[in-house]
Structure formats: structure tokens, C-alpha cells
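A.,

Following up on our hallway conversation. C-alpha cells first:
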């Protein structure tokens, strides 16, 4: 049974995919509420209000996925989540239109003094001369960050006859041309725009993108908008430039601290503000809630998710093709880890045959996840597998080979430790399943599943019988048994599978038998 915590106000209708799950319980509480049972939570849904920092993650040992019902993930410590193997997803486009419309509404309101004029009418005043506005028509709108929202805003502004100058280092000239906007440098936008609006994410690079230096380059009488994230425009610098009359006004939906409290910007008549309402429409809230709910459900059903911030995105169709190899890769990693007990320096995977047409990097991560699974305390999965390997000084390699050893597809994983290396090879046979066909130098053929025992022994008459006798004497049923050897009378291996795990006592007795070289219990 999964427990899902919905920690912010999220559309109930949009949560339906989760509420309909028979194997999940949905709790709607704040993370600070003692009844939110943080240590039992498998999935966490938030908006921007809940700060998901490392301290919170430490209290949630079962957490597997964080879903942001919205765009910005700056309230989530994605790095800490990644380290802990927690998938972070968002709803990247569910609130784009609402936020673009809100920005446009703020711009129009600011240019025509609507909030200020509205208040005077409510106060039974009639001051027509105090509220002379400015037309949008013919003005230059500077857009910093031409992503989803910036683009939708540009379309609307063009319809009002505005000239659009944009700065976005990731926007190509060709795309700017198609969108009918002028691609500029930051300085060009600052120098020419009548109104400047920011639509970038808040990152180390964009924090203070509009600072005193940038403000000093703008036209006198410029207007500013921030409906993206508090901090992209430095609030202190903006207050200074509004105070000295250089900036004519600002419209703010977001603040460096929310709620902003006694923020000096709010004291200016020329500053209008809303309480982070960009995404607050029925439509946007339904969109983002149902987008993340569907994704969380898919994730809990072990299906691929599309909007992950820290997991390689794989479409459903591609995942269906990769699924058999995905399972097998994890099992091969796990077998390796249980056979080679010491620390390893290198893990390399060679793909050949039909599997090379698939997203092999995903399989490499799955192999690593399988390898680390029982070795280290943190949950390792495809999200943090490479990072975990790097942190432990393990070099990870991936190769493609033209030789599939006679199989339609083939995955060969080699782990190198200081003194030795260990090789495992598997293939997936349609309508038959995964098979391990090579283990530590021996050809073999077994299903990587359940409780296995891997024995290295000398190829002598009676060894197999003596092993069988001990197991029989201890009521251990051998479900399957495969043997392999390099030459008659030389080294050999057995792989046995049991219906239940092999107990310590039987293992010790087997270990005492003549001609047994080594024994490894493998649990998959
Ligand atoms: N007010 C709200 O309620 C609300 C709602 C939704 C989104 N947002 C915020 O709006 C912002 C934009 O969202 P989006 O969905 O359009 O994101 P997006 O990822 O589609 O677009 C962001 C754009 O910023 C550009 N960019 C990145 N760094 C830049 C830099 N240094 N200078 C200039 N451009 C840069 C990127 O290339 C990208 O095109 C985000 O901060 C998001 O959190 C706010
Ligand atoms: O990044 C976003 O999606 C917006 O800032 C919306 O935030 P909210 O979900 O808290 O309204």
C-alpha cells in the first residue's frame, strides 16, 4: 500500500487518478502537521508553498517521488532528492496560458493604473485626471526568457501592436524569426524596451539578472514586470530606481520572500502586486494536478514518467521495448554485486544485437542500480546511479559490439576489482525470457530470478550428488539446476534455484564438501 501526501492546495478533481488507486492512500496535510506521517510517505505532491529541503527529505525515508503541481522547482532541493534516488517531476505546461494571461493582465493594469483607479472609485472619489495611462500599441516589450510563458506572452503582445525584443541565450535566430520577435542581447533589450518582463527560471545565473547595473542601462520611464520568480529582479535595486523616478512602475506577482511582509516596494503607488496568482485559475490548477497525478500513478505502477527533472525521459512506447532488458540489467547488476564481494573500480557494459537500437544509457543506469542495491544504505535507482558510482570512484563504461555471441541480443557486464574481474552475460529471448548465458568464464543458461546458489567447484564425479544430498537432508527443494565447465575435470560451476532462501547451516555444510571452491547465495 502506498501513502501519498498532498501538502499544498491542489485541485481535488485533478487528484482523481490517485484517489482511484486501490493500493494507495491519499493524505491532505501540511508537512508540518504531526498527522502527515512523514516516515510513511511514498509520494509527495506540492506547489510552491512547501519547501522541500534536505532536512524534510531526511524525515521521509520511504519517499520515492516528489511531484510539483506547477513549473518552478526552486522550492525543492533537487540535488538532495537526486542523491537520495528520489524522482522529481513537475507539470511544465499546465499553467503556461494562465501565467501568460496574468502577466498580460498585470501589464495592461499597470499601464492604465487600473488597481489605483479602482480603489479611488471604491472610496467614492472620481479622479479622472490622476490616472492618465500609456498605450501598449507601438511600445517595445522586452522579454527576458523566451520559453513557454515568454512565447505565449509575445503572441498576445503582438496582437496589441507591440514590438517584441527578446533576450534568451538558448533561443536561435531561426526560431525568433518564426515567432516574429527580435532576438537581442541583454543590453539591447535594456536600452530599448519601454516595458521589461522576466520569464526565466530562478537559477544562480538569473538571480539578480535585473540588478542596479542592469537598471542603470534602461530608458528613463521604463516599466517592469515579474510574474516568474522573486529575486530575478533585485528588489532593493528596483526600489531604489522607482524611488529616484527612473523606473515608472512595476507589476509584481512574485517576491524574494513570500508573503513579502513589510516590503518597501509595496509602499510605492506605482507598484501593483498580486499574491503569486499566475497559475491560479481553475483551468491551470486542474491541468497541473491531473498532469502530476497521472504521472505519480504511472510511477507507482512502475511505468515510465515523462516530466521528470532528474530521471532520463523515456516515452511509454520506448519503455515497452526496453522493459525486458531493464529488468534483466538490474538482475545482472545484482548478481555481480552478490558474486564479487569486494569494492570495484570499474563497471563496463557491452551491448550487442537488437538491444543496441534502444536507449542503452537507461540500461546502464539500471545495471548500476542493481549493483548498488544491497551494497549501500541509500536507495539507488536510475536517478542517482551514475552519481553514486562517481561518488564511489567507480568508472562506468558503455560499449557497442558487433558480436552478439550467436544471440539476437546480448548484454555483457564486466566488473573490475583490484585483483580480479567478473563477467556476466545475459540475453533476452522473446516468449522465453531473460537468460544468463555466461558467468565468470563459464557458459551456462539460467533464469535470473528468485533464490539462487552459485557454486564454483572442481569437475569430479559425485560433487553434484553430494550437494543434492545435503540439500535433500535439509528438506531444501531444488527447483532448477544448471552446470557449466571449461574442460573435463577442470573448474566448473553450478547454479541452483530454490523455492525458499538457503539457510546458513546448509550453506556451511556445503562449504565443507571436498571439491567446492566457493559458494555464493544470490537473492533476486
Ligand atoms: N507566477 C506564477 O504563478 C508562475 C506560473 C508558472 C511559471 N512561473 C515561472 O515562470 C518562469 C518561466 O516559466 P516557463 O514555463 O516559461 O519556463 P521555460 O523553461 O519554458 O522558459 C524559461 C526560459 O528562460 C530561458 N533562460 C534560462 N536562463 C536564462 C538567462 N540567464 N537569461 C535569459 N533567458 C534564460 C530559457 O532558455 C527558457 O527559454 C519560471 O520561473 C516559472 O517558475 C510562474
Ligand atoms: O512555478 C509555477 O508553476 C508557479 O509559480 C505556480 O506556483 P503555485 O503552484 O504555487 O501557484
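Then the amino acids I'd put at each of the 524 positions:
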Amino acid at each position: 500500500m502506498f501513502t501519498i501526501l498532498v501538502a499544498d492546495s491542489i485541485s481535488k478533481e485533478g487528484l482523481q487518478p490517485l484517489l482511484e488507486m486501490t493500493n494507495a492512500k491519499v493524505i491532505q496535510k501540511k508537512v508540518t502537521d504531526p498527522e502527515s506521517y512523514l516516515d510513511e510517505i511514498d509520494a509527495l505532491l506540492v506547489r510552491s508553498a512547501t519547501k522541500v529541503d534536505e532536512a524534510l527529505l531526511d524525515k521521509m525515508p520511504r519517499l520515492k517521488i516528489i511531484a510539483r503541481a506547477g513549473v518552478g522547482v526552486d522550492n525543492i532541493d533537487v540535488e538532495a532528492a537526486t542523491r537520495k534516488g528520489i524522482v522529481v517531476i513537475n507539470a511544465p505546461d499546465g499553467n503556461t496560458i494562465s501565467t501568460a494571461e496574468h502577466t498580460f493582465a498585470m501589464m495592461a493594469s499597470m499601464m492604465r493604473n487600473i488597481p489605483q483607479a479602482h480603489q479611488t472609485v471604491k472610496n467614492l472619489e472620481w479622479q479622472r485626471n490622476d490616472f492618465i495611462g500609456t498605450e501598449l500599441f507601438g511600445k517595445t516589450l522586452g522579454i527576458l526568457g523566451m520559453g513557454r510563458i515568454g512565447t505565449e506572452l509575445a503572441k498576445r503582445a503582438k496582437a496589441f501592436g507591440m514590438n517584441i525584443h527578446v533576450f534568451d541565450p538558448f533561443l536561435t535566430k531561426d526560431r525568433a524569426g518564426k515567432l516574429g520577435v527580435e532576438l537581442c542581447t541583454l543590453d539591447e533589450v535594456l536600452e530599448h524596451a519601454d516595458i521589461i518582463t522576466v520569464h526565466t527560471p530562478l537559477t544562480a545565473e538569473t538571480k539578480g539578472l535585473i540588478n542596479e547595473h542592469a537598471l542603470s542601462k534602461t530608458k528613463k520611464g521604463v516599466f517592469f514586470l515579474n510574474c516568474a520568480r522573486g529575486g530575478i529582479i533585485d528588489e532593493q535595486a528596483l526600489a531604489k530606481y522607482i524611488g529616484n523616478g527612473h523606473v515608472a512602475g512595476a507589476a509584481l506577482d512574485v517576491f524574494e520572500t513570500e508573503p513579502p511582509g513589510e516590503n518597501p516596494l509595496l509602499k510605492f503607488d506605482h507598484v501593483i502586486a498580486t499574491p503569486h496568482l499566475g497559475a491560479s485559475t481553475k483551468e491551470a490548477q486542474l491541468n497541473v494536478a491531473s498532469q502530476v497525478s497521472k504521472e505519480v500513478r504511472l510511477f507507482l505502477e512502475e511505468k515510465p514518467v515523462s516530466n521528470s527533472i532528474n530521471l532520463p525521459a523515456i516515452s511509454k512506447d520506448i519503455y515497452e521495448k526496453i522493459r525486458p532488458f531493464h529488468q534483466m540489467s538490474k538482475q545482472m547488476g545484482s548478481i555481480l554485486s552478490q558474486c564479487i564481494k569486494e569494492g570495484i573500480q570499474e563497471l563496463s557494459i557491452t551491448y550487442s544485437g537488437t538491444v543496441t537500437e534502444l536507449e542503452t544509457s537507461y540500461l546502464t543506469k539500471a545495471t548500476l542500480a542493481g549493483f548498488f542495491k544491497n551494497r549501500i544504505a541509500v536507495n539507488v535507482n536510475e536517478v542517482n546511479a551514475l552519481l553514486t558510482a562517481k561518488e564511489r570512484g567507480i568508472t562506468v563504461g558503455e560499449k557497442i559490439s558487433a558480436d552478439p555471441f550467436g544471440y539476437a541480443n546480448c548484454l555483457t557486464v564486466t566488473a573490475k576489482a583490484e585483483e580480479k574481474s567478473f563477467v556476466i552475460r545475459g540475453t533476452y529471448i522473446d516468449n522465453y525470457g531473460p537468460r544468463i548465458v555466461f558467468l565468470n568464464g563459464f557458459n551456462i543458461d539460467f533464469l535470473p530470478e528468485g533464490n539462487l546458489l552459485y557454486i564454483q567447484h572442481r569437475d569430479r564425479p559425485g560433487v553434484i550428488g553430494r550437494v543434492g544430498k545435503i540439500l535433500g537432508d535439509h528438506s531444501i527443494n531444488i527447483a532448477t539446476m544448471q552446470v557449466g565447465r571449461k574442460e573435463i575435470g577442470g573448474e566448473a560451476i553450478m547454479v541452483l534455484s530454490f523455492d525458499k532462501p538457503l539457510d546458513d547451516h546448509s550453506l556451511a555444510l556445503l562449504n565443507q564438501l571436498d571439491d567446492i571452491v566457493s559458494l555464493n547465495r544470490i537473492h533476486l
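Residues 47-49, 70-72, 95, 276, 278-280 surround 3-phosphoglyceric acid (ligand 2) (CB under 6 Å). Curious whether your intuition agrees with the design.

B.
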